[in-house]
Amino acid sequence: MIEIKGLTKRFGKKPVVEDVSVTIEPGTITSFIGPNGAGKSTLLSMVSRLLEADTGEVLLDQGNVKKWKSSEFAKRVSILKQSNYLNVRLTVRELIAFGRYPYSKGRLTAEDEKFIDQAIEYMNLTDMQDKFLDELSGGQKQRAFIAMVIAQDTDYILLDEPLNNLDMKHSVQIMKILRKLVDELGRTVVIVLHDINFASVYSDRIVALKDGKLVKNGPTHEIINSDALREIYDMDIPIQEQNGCRICVYFNSHA
Amino acid sequence: MRKNSTKLIFLAVLAFICILLYAFYDIKGGFDYAFPRRMIRVSAMVVTGIAIAYSTVVFQTITHNRILTPSVMGLDSMYEVVQTCIYFFAGSMSVWVLNKYLNFGAAIIAMVLFALILYRFLFRADKHPIYLLLLIGMILGALLGNFVTFLQVLIDPVEYLSLQNRLFATFSNVKADLLYISVGILFIAFIYGYRIMGKLDVMSLGRENAMNLGINYDRMVMNVLILSSVLIATSTALVGPITFFGLIVANLSYQYLVTYKHSVLILGASLIAIIALVGGQFLVEHVFELRTTLSVIINFIGGIYFIYLLLKESRAAG
Question: What residue of A is the nearest CA neighbor of B258?
């Protein structure tokens, strides 16, 4: 279990995340939503140790994440940030093999190869595993990076806006795979999302931030309603049910 | 992978041929006299080549930039400061010049201390972004450079001529004892380097990906900065500053051996460095008949290659 307790982060004097406490339930997809600049990515970065919090703490299995050994932490929690620019020229398979580094330290065993093969298959990358990353489209590249994180075989997978720059088809593909990871393999996924409808359709729980503060935290059906959304986004958003999914029709709301 | 090992063997053979050529070609005036001297020079070139290639590749990995060399940290300027101060305050006949150990020790300690103070105590490399550190290093380098020029203007012209010899890279008067010390330092650096090869591979994925994979990234950056400072300090104290050289060999290695593996890249860059230095010195001695010096050729070719890289990068960016 990951517990976030009273996290605060300031850049200069301005608090970007202010006194946020959330518990991440294992075996769920939790979406972080909120307007631009709400502190979603910063919060995710602190949970994954990329950023140090000013005050407050993050606990993984009751142990402060700062106290975890880096190599052990990397076997439990993985993070994928937005920018996937690489300075080196790698093939898809080479990139995914890096996901095994916490276990193999660069010397791949037969077991590592098995995990790599599984991750490749999971992300439908078999045909292009020997291609160089710079030959791929944005969606394929994104899938390769997610495959790396899958090969890392962590209980917790944190993703910072993985749908950025992806078209509808690829976005749906990726969300479906994340759902499978949770339902079939029992992983826990924490994801920063911009499109509220993806959050509504695919996540179990939603954490809503605004101006660095936690405004809503609960099961998806409690958050996806016009009252809660008005509080988060300052917009009147009508909700329509479609095959059991709640869709927010925000396109012509008064903003 | 197999293709890369073939390439490495090819480079190794070429390097070996260069060394043999340099050691045995046209030996005049007594084998017993010339051969040991040539061997010392060749060894100095091999040591310098490896130190510069190694430090440049690891430096470029942590800065994620292929047109930077460790000399932007101002180490070369620090070397000039030490030598100029010695000539200015103690004079060319002082023990600081005549005693090779003292001079070598003073230069190397000053350069490493400079790097340590800068990156360990003043601007903790694990607390500040690396570009800030590089910028500060560059500015301090420029400051030291100006200070050196100031002293050189005041110095006695005869002394200055003797100082100038120190400030150009030269392989012809390397002392064997200093060479052994340098080999020792290089050996220690290699043992450390061998242990972090895998980590360097992961670090080339960038800070966030490397941290995700369990690398203590900011600490590693500091360690690698200090490692490359020690290597550069050793080679500079041994033969003098060579500016563009690391840049050429590192980039040739990336181009020739398309891989992310540092063990391969560093080996390739080192072999290319040996070929360039030993082969180049052979040309200088036997083709140009000492009418020019190796560092002039290196800086000339290096400068052209640097412009080529800049144009290539800007085209890639545009």
Answer: A89
